[in-house]
Every structure is written in structure tokens, then in C-alpha cells.
Design a protein that fits this description.
Blueprint (H helix, E strand, L loop, with lengths): L1 H8 L4 E3 L5 E3 L3 E2 L7 H13 L3 E3 L7 H11 L7 E6 L6 H15 L6 E4 L5 H16 L6 E4 L3 H8 L8 E5 L7 H9 L3 E5 L11 H10 L3 H12 L2 E2 L6 H8 L8 H8 L17
Parallel strand pairs: 3-4, 4-5, 5-6, 6-7, 7-8, 8-9, 9-10
Antiparallel strand pairs: 1-2
């Protein structure tokens, strides 16, 4: 009985996408994790801990290692929600189809659960890329399609040519950059929001207020901030290559932040980015 209670406590919530597909609300990121043993070990560890949502991208250069880590974990492929992204230089109709085939080969799988356009480019390029993704989706090669780093105006432009609307938008999102207008826009159009850089790429650990909250709840700073993401309805993507942190980041389902503390965290929203602005990227 006690074991069952413990399992329930650690059971992560799912979010239902616009097409009915369910996605685990906590993801495991692999940005800047080296291909080879480092990413193999971290993905295997994450899946054995209990994560069921793995996020990678072609440009990360580690899809082969991610696939190997998945296989070594012993977790059946159908239990894993796997995401990758098409890189900017591979955008376009034919280019995207080719990039997708290469991604599947490297990951060692015959389908993706989610495929994203990594960054917005020109309207024409995005439309051609999206057309290819819609075809792959209809062919059953992808269970859900979406975008990454799209602002409201990028989404509005995509809506003009899309026959299927994005189901997810993965963006930089954390207490310092809460993007309320974008979040509201995505909610209006049934687009779930994923958060990259959910811990402000480490900056959150330098803010005394978050240590105060960690002490109050008997949790780590990372756990407090990831819990804030969950209660906001976001899908955070923390990354670590350290086994104890991989485990710790997963232990966020057994407590709840008070409305007052949620509101206090919200006051840290300055709108300041840590990563690039999608409107001014040059890559």
C-alpha cells in the first residue's frame, strides 16, 4: 500500500494536445549534451528515473546518442514521448522531408511523437517546411507537429497557409521571461507551451528569494521553479547530466506552491531574455 502511494505521488501529469495526443508535462532536455557516452548515460538515467518525455534536435548533434540511451534504458519505445526539430538550414519542403528521414535514422526509430520547426525564418520558408510536416503527420510518421521560438506574429503568418495548426510552441520561458501575452495567445488557439531554459540557464540559483522558497518547502531551488512551471500549465524541459540532479528535477509532483508564492514568483518577470530574440536571429 505504501509503495502504491509513493508511486502515485511521483506520477507526473499529462497534457492533452489539440489533436488528443497526450504529452508528459515534464520533459528531459539534451541541449549541449555531447553525443556519445554523455548523452547515452543521461538519457538512460532519465528514463530509468521515470521521465517519459525526451527532447532533442538535429542541430544538437546528439540524436544518435539519444536513441542509444533510449534503447539501453529498457523502456519500451511506445512509452516514450520523443521530440526532435528541423534546423534552419534544412527548412523548405524537400529539405524538411530529407532532414526528417535523417533524424529517424539517427534516433533509430520509425516515428516521432513531436517534430518542431526550430526557429522562425521567412514566411515562404516556414510555409514550405510546414507543408512537409503536415504530410508526415498525415502519413502517421509524427504524432504531433509544432513550432519553437515563434512569437505571436510568426504564428499568425503560419496560420495563413497551414491546414493543420501547431499543437505546441516551445519557447524560452522562466520567471524572468514569463511571456504572458504569448501564453494567452497560444491558449486561445489551443497550442500547448513548452519551456526551454526553465531554470534561466542557472541564473535562478543566484536569486536569494528562490533559496528562501526552497527552505520554506524543503525543496531545491530547481524543484521550486520547475513546480512553478507545472502549476502555470507549461511543459518544462530541464537538462542535466548529473544523476542526482536528474532524479531531483523529477521529484516535483509531491508538493504544491501556494497562490501567494506563485504570485511572488510572477513578480520576477522583467521580460529579459537569456537566449536570442527570434526576431533578430542571424542563423
Amino acid at each position: 500500500m505504501e509503495m502504491k502511494k509513493e508511486e502515485e505521488k511521483m506520477k507526473q501529469p499529462m497534457i492533452k494536445l489539440a489533436n488528443g495526443v497526450e504529452i508528459p508535462q515534464l520533459g528531459f532536455g539534451t541541449f549541449k549534451v555531447d553525443d556519445g557516452q554523455q548523452v547515452i548515460d543521461s538519457v538512460r538515467e532519465a528514463l530509468q528515473v521515470g521521465y517519459r518525455h525526451i527532447d532533442t534536435a538535429a542541430v544538437y548533434g546528439n540524436e544518435s546518442g539519444v536513441g542509444q540511451g533510449m534503447r539501453e534504458s529498457g523502456v519500451p519505445r511506445e512509452e516514450i514521448f520523443l521530440t526532435s526539430k528541423v534546423w534552419n538550414s534544412h527548412q523548405g519542403y524537400e529539405e524538411t522531408l530529407a532532414a526528417f528521414a535523417e533524424t529517424l535514422e539517427k534516433l533509430g526509430t520509425d516515428y516521432l511523437d513531436l517534430y518542431l520547426i526550430h526557429w522562425p525564418k521567412t514566411a515562404e520558408k516556414t510555409a514550405a517546411t510546414w507543408k512537409a510536416m503536415e504530410e508526415l503527420y498525415r502519413a502517421g510518421k509524427i504524432r504531433a507537429i509544432g513550432v519553437s521560438n515563434f512569437k505571436e506574429h510568426h504564428l499568425v503568418t503560419l496560420f495563413e497557409t497551414a491546414t493543420i495548426r501547431p499543437m505546441i510552441n516551445q519557447v524560452e520561458l522562466h520567471p524572468q521571461l514569463a511571456q504572458p501575452e504569448l501564453i494567452a495567445f497560444c491558449a486561445e488557439h489551443e497550442i500547448a507551451v513548452e519551456a526551454w531554459g526553465p531554470l534561466m540557464q542557472g541564473k535562478v540559483f543566484t536569486l536569494p528569494f528562490f533559496q528562501e522558497l526552497a527552505d520554506k518547502y524543503g525543496k531545491s531551488i530547481a524543484q521550486i521553479v520547475l513546480r512553478w512551471h507545472l502549476q502555470k500549465g507549461f511543459i518544462p524541459m530541464p537538462k542535466s547530466i548529473t544523476p542526482n540532479r536528474i532524479m531531483s528535477n523529477f521529484e516535483i509532483f509531491d508538493f504544491v506552491l501556494s497562490p501567494e508564492d506563485m504570485a511572488a514568483i510572477d513578480t520576477y518577470n522583467t521580460g529579459e531574455r537569456i537566449g536570442p530574440d527570434p526576431d533578430t536571429i542571424e542563423f
